[in-house]
Write a structure and sequence with these properties.
By secondary structure, the chain is mainly α. It has one domain. Helix content is about 75%, strand content about 0%. It contains five helices and no strands. It has helices at about 5-10, 15-20, 25-35, 35-55, 65-80. Helix 3 (about 25-35) packs across helix 4. The longest helix has 20 residues, at about 35-55.
Length: about 80
């Protein structure tokens, strides 16, 4: 397999995090991560996103209030307008 670049790492990140890549490919990912702080940061935020999504799906959490829902929708719409 060729040396991985940042785009390759991002494209197969789910497989990397899930541990479903062959050892040789994982070794290449690890080699790229050892030299690329930007991809390490991306991987960190990717893992944190997964953790937060899982935590938000807990059944024992109370539902969001109407006010929280309204503010969230406003924030999303505002961000889309700026983009």
């Amino acid at each position: 397999m060729k040396d991985l670049n940042c785009r390759d790492v991002i494209e197969f990140l789910d497989d990397y995090v899930g541990g479903v890549q062959p050892a040789t490919v994982r070794h290449e990912f690890d080699a790229h991560l050892a030299e690329c702080p930007a991809c390490v940061d991306y991987l960190t935020t990717y893992r944190e996103t997964i953790r937060l999504c899982r935590a938000s799906c807990r059944e024992d959490l109370p539902p969001a209030s109407a006010e929280v829902e309204r503010r969230l929708i406003e924030a999303i719409v505002s961000a889309r307008r700026r983009a």
